[in-house]
Amino acid sequence: MVAMRPELLKGHLDALLLAVLEPGPRHGYAVIESLRAGSDGTLDLPTGTVYPALHRLERAGLIGSDWETVGGRRRRTYHLTGAGRAALGEHRALWDEFSAAVTALLGGTRPAPA
Amino acid sequence: MSPPAGTAVEGPVRAYLDRIAAGLHGPRRQRERILAELHDGLTQAIADRAARGEPGAHATAGAIAEFGRPEAVAAAFAGELATGFARRTLITYVATGPLVGIWWLLLLRPDPWHTGPAALLAAIPILPLIIVTLVAASGALATTGRLMRWLPEAGPRRALAATLTVAGLTAAGDLLIVGATARAGALVGPLAVIAVGAGLARLGYGVGTLIRAVGLLTRPA
User: Fold this and answer.
1) Given CB 3.0 to 4.6 Å as the disulfide criterion, which of A61, B62, B81, B215 pairs with B146?
2) Segment B78-105, tens digit of pLDDT
3) Are A1 and A41 in contact (CB under 8 A)?
4) B138/B158 Cα distance (integer angstroms)
5) 3-state DSSP call for residue B9?
6) Quick check: helix, strand or coil at residue A70?
7) pLDDT tops 90 at residue B71
8) Most A CBs within 10 Å: which of B33, B44, B48, B141, as the mutation test of the A interface?
9) Considering only CB atoms, which chain B residues are within 8 Å of A59?
């Protein structure tokens, strides 16, 4: 299996992070693990991609974060906000449309030669 | 900056976080939070590997390798740190603006018999500059904050450019008003001392902002 390059995810990373947080709050490393596990290892994104993207989503108000102490160290846990839930719905609708169009073009039968 | 205080950070993890810390440039609190978060993530990654049966040293080395080169990790946060610096500075300007402006307003307020925008503009000629500065600051804050869901998002360089613009316009306004008031011979009394003092303090902050913003803008990615 080939790990996907972060640049291929451009435009979809926000939606993926929101989707990972939809079931419940997660800390940064758990988000990375969820992306990896949820995609059977295809989305093995580096730390330097995921953490700054989470911070940017928080700045946009789509996710929030809380600090707690776990095992003597500080842990930041992210959760989806109402705006984030709405944005995820919009991303899903756009993705359905986009993926249907791309699948129709790439995944169908090849056109017969003229 | 050292890894999170009050926590036992083991040798290789400490060395790794130290190298990341050396590459982080921006607001201190934001850098501390990034390091605390990475420390937690790294500790969790090591624990997960150990739970899968990896020996201690292997688990640590594997988790560190998984997190990536410290220089690359630090560089990945440069944009967020620059934006954080820009937002914090712009909020400071917007929040402290009235604290400086009130003294100039009290000192230069128009004659009670001459009211209206024209009289106010004649008394405080830098009013248009203040409005332009406020619009620039508000625009940058909106497009780097919650409103970026609807407005075009400003990247870190644009946010820093807006910060430099606001700092420059504010400094120009402070210098112009001090100069104009001094020429008019109106810089007398305790009110004038407070107004000039507040303006000079903001000028000092502006110089610091300029140095830090240019440093962040010119730092190689």
Assistant:
1) A61
2) 999 999 999 999 999 999 999 998 988 8
3) yes
4) 13
5) coil
6) strand
7) yes
8) B44
9) 80, 83, 87, 144-146, 148
Residue B149 confidence class, pLDDT cut points 50, 70, 90: confident
For the entire predicted model, the pTM comes to 0.87
DSSP three-state, residue A26: strand
Residues 6+ apart with CB under 8 A from B76: A46, A47, A48, A49, A51, A52
How many helices and strands (H and E) does chain B possess?
A: 9, 0
* CB contacts, 8 Å: A73 with chain B: 4, 7, 36, 39-40, 43
The partner residue sitting opposite A73, judged by closest CB among B39, B72, B83, is B39
Angle between helices B11-23 and B56-67 (to 10 degrees): 10
Token pair in block for residue B71: 């220089």
Q: Which residue has the higher pLDDT, A101 or B3?
A: A101
Question: Is the confidence at residue B109, as pLDDT, over 90?
Answer: no
Report which of A98, A96, A31 is spatially closest to residue A63, judged by C-alpha positions: A31
Q: Are the C-beta atoms of B86 and B153 separated by less than 8 Å? A: no
* C-alpha closest to that of B59 among B43, B71, B73, B72: B43
Chain B residues closer than 8 Å to A52 by CB: 76-77, 79-80
Other CB atoms closer than 10 Å to residue B138's CB: what's the count? 15
Query: pLDDT band at A113, cuts 50/70/90?
Result: low
The structure tokens 């620059």 sit at B82
Strand order in the sheet with A63-70: A26-27, A73-80, A63-70
Q: How many CB atoms lie within 10 A of CB B5?
A: 9
d(CA A113, CA B20): 56
Closest CA to B197 of B95, B104, B94: B104
Of B145, B135, B152, nearest in space to B94 by CA: B135
Which segment of B89-93, B135-139, B191-195 scores lowest on mean pLDDT? B191-195
Q: Strand pairing of A73-80 and A63-70?
A: antiparallel
Structure tokens at B70: 């410290």
